[in-house]
Write a structure and sequence with these properties.
The chain is an alpha/beta fold. The protein has one domain: TIM Barrel, CATH 3.20.20.70. The protein has 11 helices and 8 strands. Strands 1-2-3-4-5-6-7-8 form an 8-stranded parallel β-barrel, surrounded by 7 helices. Helix 9 (197-200) links the parallel strand 7 and strand 8. Helix 2 packs parallel to helix 3 and helix 10 packs across helix 11 (224-236). The structure holds pyridoxine-5'-phosphate. Residues 6, 8, 42, 69, 89, 91, 99-100, 130, 150, 189-192, 210-214 line the site of pyridoxine-5'-phosphate.
Length: 239
C-alpha cells in the first residue's frame, strides 16, 4: 500500500501567524524524499489551509503525484483545469466543519457530478470521489465516470470495541472488492494514524492511503522525514 501525505496542516500552522514558515512546499518535498507516493492538499473555499499561491508552487515542485482535494464548485473546477494536478478528489465541504465530515453525497448531486467530471478528465486529470464505504455510492461513482473511489475511514478510526472495529474493516474490505469489480481503483483515508493502521492494512486491494493529521502531528515532534518513514514502514509490515 502506498502512502500519500496531506500537508494542509503545515499551512494551518503557518497561517496562525500569517508568516512564511513553515512552508507547505518544503514539507511536501521532505515527504516526497522520505518515500511518500503523493502529496495531498485541500484548497478550501475559505482558504483556511493552503492558498492559491501554495497550490501553484506545489504544482511546480511536486514530482510524485499532486492530489487536489476540492469541493464541486465552478471556481474549483477552473483552478483544477488551470493547475493540472494528477488527481482531483471531490469532497463535500461545509464552512463550519473542522475537517471533512462525511462522504460525498453522490445521489443528491448526481446530474451535476456527471457534467463536472468530463472537463477534468479532458484536461488529463484523474478523478476520485471520497465516499462512505457503501455499495450504492460505488455504483454511482462508477456510472458518474470516476476513476477512483476514496473510502472514508473516519468511521473506522472512531470505533472502540474489537467487534465494531472488525465489522467496519469487513465493510471496508467488501466495498473495496465491489469497487474493483466495478472497474474502479480504490484508495482510503481520514483518521488513520500510527495505531489504527495495523489492523487496517490487512484489507486487500487498497492501493494507497492518504494521511494528514497524524503525520503532521508526529512531524512536529520528530521531523517530517522520520514521521513519513515510520508510517511507510508500518503500512508495509506484513500482517
Ligand atoms: N482524505 C480526505 C478526503 C480528507 O478530506 C482528509 C482530511 O483532509 C484526509 C483523507 C486525511 O485525513 P486525516 O487528516 O485525518 O489523516
Amino acid at each position: 500500500m502506498r502512502l500519500a501525505v496531506n500537508i494542509d496542516h503545515i499551512a494551518t500552522l503557518r497561517n496562525a501567524r500569517n508568516e512564511q514558515q513553515p512552508d507547505p512546499v518544503t514539507a511536501a518535498s521532505a515527504a516526497e524524499l522520505s518515500g511518500a507516493s503523493g502529496i495531498v492538499c485541500h484548497l478550501r473555499e475559505d482558504r483556511r489551509h493552503i492558498r492559491d499561491r501554495d497550490l501553484e508552487r506545489l504544482r511546480e515542485s511536486v514530482t510524485t503525484k499532486l492530489d487536489l482535494e476540492m469541493a464541486m464548485t465552478d471556481e474549483m473546477q477552473r483552478i483544477a483545469v488551470r493547475t493540472k494536478p494528477e488527481l482531483v478528489t471531490l469532497v463535500p465541504e461545509k464552512r463550519e466543519e473542522l475537517t471533512t465530515e462525511g462522504g460525498f453525497d453522490i445521489e443528491g448531486h448526481y446530474d451535476r457530478l456527471r457534467e463536472f467530471i468530463p472537463p477534468l478528465r479532458d484536461s488529463g486529470i484523474e478523478v476520485s470521489i471520497f465516499i462512505e464505504p457503501e455499495k450504492r455510492a460505488v455504483e454511482l461513482a462508477a456510472s458518474a465516470g470516476a476513476d477512483i473511489v476514496e473510502l472514508h475511514t473516519g468511521p473506522y478510526s472512531l470505533k472502540k470495541s474489537h467487534a465494531d472495529i472488525e465489522a467496519e474493516l469487513e465493510r471496508l474490505g467488501k466495498t473495496a472488492a465491489f469497487a474493483r469489480d466495478a472497474g474502479l481503483r480504490v484508495v482510503a483515508g481520514h483518521g488513520l494514524n500510527y495505531y489504527n493502521i495495523e489492523p487496517f492494512r490487512t484489507i486487500g486491494g487498497i492501493e494507497e492511503i492518504s494521511i494528514g493529521h497524524a503525520i503532521i502531528a508526529r512531524a512536529a515532534i520528530v521531523g517530517m522525514e522520520r514521521a513519513v518513514r515510520e508510517m511507510i514502514r508500518l503500512v508495509n509490515t506484513p500482517a
